[in-house]
Amino acid sequence: MISRFSFLAVFLAAAPLVAGQATQKFEWNPQRGAQDIHVETDRVVVSQLEFDLGDRVKPTQFSTAHAVARVDNNGFLAYEVGVAIAIFDGEGNIVAAGSGGVKLGSLAKGERDTFTIKFPYVYRNLDKAKSFTVTLETVERGSRKK
Fold first, then answer.
1. d(Cα 52, Cα 33) in Å, to the nearest integer?
2. Within its chain, how far is the Cα of 146 from the centroid?
3. What is the chain's percent helix, strand, coil content, to nearest 5?
4. Which pTM does this prediction carry?
5. Of the candidates 49, 28, 51, 56, the residue with the CA atom closest to the CA atom of residue 120
């Protein structure tokens, strides 16, 4: 009995953790900076992006360009959440890319938050944007070792 229990405990502890992930592509069409989208996994949804093409900060030429992602947890569990955005020109070149996510801890069930995705270094051709992809990644809170 003890050996069966030990085997089961080791098996469950070694089971791989599965993170939810969804990626979708959209045409670039922000209205006054905002664009409604729908990317969902594990009942967590990115429903809007608000783009700000930003300015260059002298003397470093660092960019303040960013997007703010609105994320809703419509599920029954708390999740650690990450969002990545890659923006492309008409020829398929990346003109901006960045990622962001939960600021502290996790996104609780029923909670809404916004995540800022910065584009600090690859931004110089952002005005040529034609499409973008959004990846949403989730993992149940406390389900992985820190």
1. 6
2. 20
3. 10, 50, 40
4. 0.81
5. 56
